[in-house]
Amino acid sequence: MKKRTTSTFIFLVILIIALMSSALFARAGGGGDFGGGGDGGGEGLGTLIYILIRVIIELPFPANIIVGGGITVGFLIVTRTTQKKIKEQTILNQLPSGEPVKKVKGYERFIAANPDFDEELFKRAVRETFIKVQKAWENQNVSEIRRFISDGVYQRFNTQFKMMSLLKQKNIITDINVKNVYIDRVESDGLYDIVHTAIHASLHDRFVSELDSSLNTGGHEEFVEYWSFLKKRGKPRKDMYFTNECPNCGSPLPADMGELSQCPSCNTITNSGEYDWVLSEITQADDYITANPRLAKSPSLTEKIKELIEENEDFAVQLIEDKASNGYLQILTAITMNDPTIMRRFVSNEYFTKFSTLKNTDRIEYNRLYLNDVTLIGVSDDGSKYILSIAVKSSFQRVHVLQNSTENIDAVVVSKTEVMLMGRDKNFSASKGSIYAHQCSSCGAPVENSLEIHCAYCGAALNSTRGEWIVLDVLTPEQYNDYVNTHRGNFSYQKDLSVLDKLIDVRDFALNNVMVIMASDGFFQDEEREFALQLAHKWGYNPDKLDPFFTMAQSGQLHIRMPDNPSKIAKIYRLMEKAAMADSTITNEERAVLDQIKSHYHIEI
Fold it and tell me: What digits encode the pLDDT tens for the residues 362-388?
């Protein structure tokens, strides 16, 4: 009996050690900190040990050993399978392939509030809009689409047109093929509804610069993009997509509506969301799936929005974010073009003074400039006005403009996050116009770019928080964290910046950046593609679901992303170096990317 007890004890010790070693190996084999292993392993191990002890004590030998061994093997199989499934839940395995979703989130509630919604007509309008927007982009002229795009979308186009003009660029688009259009998600925002629509399309896309041919890029692309449309809930639809008439009075709209989408006959703002669906956002697939829609659903934010709606029924998070994207891009344009008049009317006097330190003295311009995500992350008040904190994630590639050429500042497109603070007086009333669309908020009169901040018609201060959301400051993440700590008592709603990347695992950052560096010389070598597939397999990705990711990398749609943690940034950088050496040599283009990343993120290795 003593011998049996001793042997059973030894077996149990060996079994526990083996089990613990196996669990440790599963985490390390999944990529260490890059793995997607879940919590709860300790509790599962403890339960297993308890069961094994009971089996060994209560069952006769050798039955106890056989049963205990079977339980252990089963536990290991289940653990491995569970860890594999957890890993495959990575956000990159959710990149869309163009297949419609089976159940549209929020659709039933949406239809109940909008019983006359015609889905087929809506999708036909989206398809028509997609083609018209591509042509407007190619011609650098949005007059044909101005009536149904938001001011923020208009400003994104307008800013990029100005940058392209400085670099003498054209974007030639041919062979447009819209393969599928489907509704992905529907949400409510104040008194408005937003329909997020996926567009699966292909086209041939070429950037051509007369100033510097080294800026020329392009080729065939197939992609899924998400276009978001906004409309006031319950309002009857009046078509703005297949007619060029004012939705209010029926008068023909001018061929060129310019900065303001307004009917000259009745002064109706056509893109207000009162009449038809307004294009309010265009989002790339990787940005769309990594965005966190739950921010807008936070109970504390919902309650604060209700308070703001009581003061102004037209308040909506989407509209605020639209103003923020509009203002942010106009500020960048003002800096790039050394023209403070562009942004004077919608920034505070204090921020305008700060602007003098941001002037572009070296002729830095943007070869690429995108807004990836604009998200309301904080609501506070200082006693007299509300202050909104809006995170802006942008991607860009800067160049020095020389006499007859350019010189890259950024070897590839990189990203950054800043936070805009926008303020407006408490107990505010509805505006009669928008300074972001060149209107006086007090009287609705047209406003030109000027350093004069008083309306020529009514004399009201244009940048007053009494009538409009004014940009108070633009902060780096570090500056914003200091601001929150200093004013924490003023916040009724606040989310840390880290929540913006909550859905992105560290290994997602790493694989994304590895793909960017391997594509930096314009194409994938066979060895590089094989290395990427091996890396994806090692980290638990499903290779069958990564095809959209490879396609985005090859067409230059990916950009460098990094988390906030310095040690993780260093690990990602080492992986990027290893990826560059996958074909046994580091090209000049790849070395330039590595050097840029090392400098930009202050990596010391």
Answer: 778 898 888 888 989 999 989 899 999
Report the greatest alpha carbon distance in the chain: 104
Quick one: pLDDT at residue 497? 82
Q: So what's the pLDDT on residue 598?
A: 86
- Beta 414-425 vs 385-401: how paired, if at all? antiparallel
**pLDDT tens-digit series, residues 392-414:** 999 898 988 887 888 888 888 88
**What's the rounded Cα separation, in Å, for the pair 42 and 454?**
66
Task: Based on the fold, state whether residues 56 and 108 are members of the same structural domain.
Answer: no
Spell out the SS3 assignment of 306-335. Answer: HHHHHHCCCCCHHHHHHHHHHHHHHHHHHH
Per residue in 290-313, pLDDT (tens digit) is 775 544 455 666 677 767 766 676
- Write down the residue that tokens 């996926």 correspond to: 198
pLDDT band at residue 585 using 50, 70 and 90 as cut-offs: confident
Beta-bridge mates of residue 278: 230
Long-range contacts, 265-273 (Cβ 8 Å, 24+):
267/444, 270/147, 270/148, 270/240, 270/246, 271/146, 271/147, 271/148, 271/149, 271/150, 271/151, 272/232, 273/192, 273/230, 273/231, 273/232
CATH of the domain at 151: 3.10.450
Residue 106 counted as domain residue = yes
Whether the bond between 563 and the residue before it is cis, its omega within 30 degrees of 0, is no
Mean pLDDT of 26-32: 29
Q: Is residue 92 part of a domain?
A: no
Find out whether 419 and 377 touch, Cβ atoms under 8 Å: yes
